[in-house]
């Protein structure tokens, strides 16, 4: 049994480790030199849209998956008929365009912040009339970790925002004064069985995920988030792991975005769940029974961004995951996960790790 994985970054690496534990081999495609997943499988060093590389993957693998959402959909479609590709290309397509994604949320009656399509400088003014200020404008495609975003708070920001990203197709969104952010991760196998992980509470800084903690003691929110994730999984006839990020405003949940892949806010599940998101993704695409998504105590995850300080390596708490990437400002190089019997103890450990990171 062999899985082809498009992308060989840290998500590919963690998928590769999970596959190895299940006795399954992985073959990756990635243009980078010595990417993180090279430690757990052969890597075809080719572009993600290299048709020959994808054809080779299709010919030598039983199923194909991907670890990031900017894989060109057209490239994926060239191999779809030859070998199963999961998650389905339609899910990838929706997630690649923020307008398309929001239209899908609307169609599935998943609540979301007000939004407005922006194709011209004049549309920006109309968006402000419709949504009010502050609002955030985002590139519809290829934005991640807060990149390609601009918050408009006052009149002087309009031209600055337009100069910064106006060359792209844009979307404007209401700025949400949320209480906190959560994500809900679900998994569905080819038989249609679904399992949902407990909620994670996430903290972002400058658009980048810093910490995740799970579970969250909010049964009503968990029930709603689970319902929204199930709507997406069913509608898309989805196979694999899907992550939905939401803003919490009182008892209301507003969808921000979904990712058709394993997700950074689910890394805690390696130590903090009976079955990690990575193992369940592999199980789902191979149509094996899904593993239990029950928590093992309370888990907290701290991302290591830009560098892995020596102080983190010498901590006697937590499990350090070093992706083996070279340091660069803003780059996710690893993470640390702690588990504890109580939420208070978990918070204490997360604080200790955060102090050693800053
Ligand atoms: P995104 O790339 O859209 O997930 O945005 C990254 C982060 O920016 C989110 O996790 C939030 O912390 C913040 N953010 C994005 N959009 C909004 C919004 N409409 N209102 C408030 N905060 C936002």
Reconstruct the topology from this structure:
Blueprint lengths: L1 E5 L3 H12 L3 E5 L12 E3 L6 H10 L2 E4 L6 H8 L8 H8 L1 H10 L7 E4 L2 H11 L3 E5 L9 E4 L4 H9 L4 E5 L5 E9 L5 E3 L3 E6 L2 E7 L4 H17 L4 E10 L2 E8 L9 H4 L4 H9 L12 E8 L4 H4 L5 E4 L9 E9 L2 H15 L1
Parallel strand pairs: 1-2, 1-4, 2-3
Antiparallel strand pairs: 5-8, 6-7, 6-8, 9-10, 9-11, 9-13, 11-12, 12-15, 13-14, 15-17, 16-17
The structure holds adenosine monophosphate.
Adenosine monophosphate (AMP) binds next to strand 8 and strand 14.
The number of E-state strands comes to 17
Global mean pLDDT: 96
General shape: globular
The percentage of residues in β strands lies in 25-35%
Stretches with pLDDT under 50, minimum 5 residues: none
Structural class: alpha+beta
Instruction: Describe the sheet with the most strands.
Output: 9 strands, antiparallel
Ligand list: adenosine monophosphate
Distance between the termini: 43 Å
Helix content: 25-40%
- Gyration radius, in Å: 20 Å
């Amino acid at each position: 049994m062999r899985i082809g994985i498009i992308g060989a970054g840290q998500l590919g690496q963690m998928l590769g480790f999970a596959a190895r534990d299940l006795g399954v081999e992985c073959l990756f495609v990635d243009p980078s030199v010595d990417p993180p997943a090279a430690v757990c499988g052969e890597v075809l060093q080719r572009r993600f849209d290299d048709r020959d590389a994808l054809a080779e993957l299709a010919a030598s693998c039983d199923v194909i998956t991907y670890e990031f959402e900017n894989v060109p959909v057209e490239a994926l479609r060239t191999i779809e008929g030859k070998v199963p590709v999961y998650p389905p290309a339609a899910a990838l397509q929706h997630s690649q365009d923020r307008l398309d994604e929001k239209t899908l949320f609307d169609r599935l009656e998943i609540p979301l912040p007000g939004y407005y399509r922006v194709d011209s400088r004049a549309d920006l003014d109309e968006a402000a009339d419709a949504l009010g200020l502050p609002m955030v404008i985002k590139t519809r495609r290829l934005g991640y970790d807060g990149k390609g975003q601009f918050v408009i708070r006052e009149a002087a920001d309009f031209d600055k925002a337009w100069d910064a990203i106006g060359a792209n197709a844009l979307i404007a969104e209401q700025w949400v004064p949320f209480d906190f952010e959560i994500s809900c991760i679900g998994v569905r196998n080819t038989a249609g069985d679904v399992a949902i992980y407990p909620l994670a509470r996430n903290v972002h800084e400058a658009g980048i995920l810093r910490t995740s903690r799970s579970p969250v003691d909010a049964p009503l929110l968990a029930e709603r988030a689970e319902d929204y994730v199930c709507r997406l999984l069913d509608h898309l006839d989805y196979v694999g792991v899907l992550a939905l990020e939401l803003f919490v405003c009182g008892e209301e949940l507003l969808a921000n975005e979904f990712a058709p892949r394993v997700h950074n806010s689910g890394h805690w599940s390696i130590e903090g769940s009976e079955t990690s998101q990575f193992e369940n993704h592999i199980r789902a695409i191979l149509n094996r029974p899904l593993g239990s998504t029950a928590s093992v105590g309370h888990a907290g995850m701290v991302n290591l961004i830009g560098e892995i300080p020596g102080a983190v390596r010498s901590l006697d708490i937590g499990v350090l995951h070093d992706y083996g990437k070279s340091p660069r400002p803003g780059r996710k190089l690893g993470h640390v996960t702690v588990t504890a019997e109580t939420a208070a103890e978990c918070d204490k450990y997360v604080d200790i790790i955060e102090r050693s990171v800053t």
